[in-house]
Amino acid sequence: MRIKHLKHWLSVVLLSLPLSVAASVGAAIDAPFSFIDDQITAHQGQSGIYVLDSGAEALMARAWLADHAQHSIDVQYFIWSTDNIGILAAEALLRAAKRGVQVNVIVDDLLIDAEDKTLIALSQHPNINIRIYNPKSSVGVPLQKRVLNIATDFRGVNQRMHNKTFIVDGKVAITGGRNMAAEYYDYHQEFNFRDRDALLLGEVVTTMQFSFREFWESELSVPVAQRYNGLGLMKKRVQVDENEAVAIQQRLHDYAKSPANFATEVHTAINEVGPTAHRMTAQIAWGRAEFISDKPGKNDSLNSLSGGGLATTALAQLIDDAKERIVIQSPYLVLSDAALALFKRARARGVQIRINTNSLASTDNLPAFSGYRNQRKELLSIGLEIFEYKPDAATQRQLMQKSGTASVTLPTTSLHSKTLVVDSKIAYIGTFNLDPRSENLNTEAGVIIYNEELAQVIEATIETDMQAENSWNAATDDPDSHVPVTKRSKLRMFQMLPLKPLL
Q1: Using an 8 Å Cβ cutoff, are 315 and 428 in contact?
Q2: Rounded distance between C-alpha atoms, residue 452 and residue 307, angstroms
Q3: Phi, psi (rounded to 5 degrees) for 462
Q4: How far apart, in whole angstroms, are the C-alpha atoms of residue 499 and residue 372?
Q5: Is residue 131's pLDDT more than 70?
Q6: What domains lie within the chain, and their CATH numbers?
Q7: For every residue of 206-269, which 3-state class applies, written as one string?
Q8: Dihedral of CA 466/467/472/477: which sign?
Q9: Residue 207, number of CB atoms within 10 A of its CB
Q10: H/E segment holding residue 423
């Protein structure tokens, strides 16, 4: 899918982008990062945090960083699509590699849709290394091998890398809910996500890079070149010679140079925005931040779909420590027995728990919603306050209008943000969904922010998303009534299936 009206988008974004965002990223790209080095030195042992709430902010931040990296770019994503955003992002990394930046990419295997030859051509560049996490379903896997993997290693096939990190020069990083696809940046014409990232500087980035190296060195992360041309029928045979690799790389450059795909003014803007914004860097929140991530492979459970993980333990501890109030935003709400017990303990202590999740009208995952639908009455009965996000939420419309990405007909919006705020003092932004899959199967990551002022800002944003113009109250509004009978019928079918451990 192509981005429409990119020239108009550029002019609006440059005028409307919050100065604090321009400041945080602008400072980071001041080659050779001397300005950001000064900021880190001034806040020794601390981390700088800026919340990227809009798709336009998040996209521009990544573009600035990729175009001004000096030494390295380490990228980790669950989904990397071959739509307009995915192609432009790949081309930006290729340009960085050609100017001498070392580019390391880990992508989960399950939902990758890149062409085999494109993956091989990019990985043949001397400064680009691409590894595929747990390749049992897609990359280099013919159909017969995929079926065999599901039959003989069902748990292994379901262990996915859900981490999303983007690290530049070991100093500046982004983590959060967004994958690399148009719908995460408000540019899909029919369906977009309400999401959240954190841009990070300083101490916490060191921990993020250590986590990235753990995944990079894991035997589960397999170099692209090893996924092809094996013996027999169990591995695809795909070859790309040097001339074809050069031609594929050139096609990416040609695509990005076309004003129909990526207006040339955007490239100019990326070069010019940063130096004018340094005076605003004081708006970055500095303090303590902790990056949490599961180990590759998640846990040692071999005979079941349970097992937990480091991220699960860390977030459960935050909830167990809550004294007054918990506010959560999660696209999926399916509580395991352990999670249900955790929330019951919190309620027994008198802790108020408010959750913003998708409605049947907004969800992108009907099976996951069926798990929530089976539990909804019980969750409400223990005192959880649940608000289901509307597909035409006013907050998303306002964000898209501000950034210039709104069209005449507003696309359906689905909640994708994974955020937790405890006692209005501590916040988590990351990849962890409130469901058994994140708890036990997918590796998850995110940042815990120990900054009361910033936690209250994040909490207020979620509370706004819970208001009547944005969400239905699950206890009083009958949200399911807003969808056709056919969709409710499909939901009932999923409700009867034993899917909970996989949701």
Answers
A1: yes
A2: 32
A3: -65, -40
A4: 11
A5: yes
A6: 6-42+49-283 (3.30.870.10), 290-502 (3.30.870.10)
A7: HHHHHHHHHHHHCCCEEEHHHHCCCCCCCCCCCCCCHHHHHHHHHHHHHHHHCCCCCCHHHHHH
A8: positive
A9: 18
A10: none
- Which comes out higher in pLDDT, residue 6 or 332? 332
Residue 50 above 70 pLDDT? yes
DSSP code of residue 352:
E
What is the Cα–Cα distance from 24 to 135, expressed in whole angstroms? 36
Residues forming a β-bridge with 448? 290, 428
Average of per-residue pLDDT values in the chain: 86
The CA distance from 90 to 145, in Å, is 28
HEC states along 362-383? CCCCHHHHHHHHHHHHHHHHCC
Residue 418: how many other CB atoms lie within 10 Å: 26
Contact 212, 167 (CB under 8 A): yes
| 8 Å CB contact between 6 and 262 | yes
Mean pLDDT to the nearest integer, 356-381? 96
Closest residue by Cα to residue 295 from 214, 223, 210: 214
270 — pLDDT class (breaks 50, 70, 90): low
Question: What is the four-CA torsion angle of 315, 320, 322, 325, rounded to 10 degrees?
Answer: 80
Enter the pTM of the model.
0.90
CA atoms of 312 and 293, how far apart (whole Å): 9
In angstroms, the CA 220 to CA 58 distance is 29
Question: Strand 197-202 to strand 165-168: parallel, antiparallel, or no bridges (unpaired)?
Answer: unpaired
Return left, alpha or beta for 326; rule: phi > 0 is left, psi -120 to 50 is alpha, else beta.
beta
The average pLDDT across 91-107 equals: 95
Q: Which two tokens stand for residue 488?
A: 């409710």
Measured CA to CA, the distance from residue 80 to residue 242 in angstroms comes to 24
pLDDT of residue 5: 40
Helices H / strands E in the chain, number of each: 18, 18
Distances (CA, A) of 21 to 16, 24, 99, 150, 484: 11, 5, 26, 44, 41
pLDDT value at 348 more than 80: yes
- The tens digit of pLDDT for each residue in 217-259 reads 999 999 998 888 765 556 678 888 899 989 999 998 988 888 7
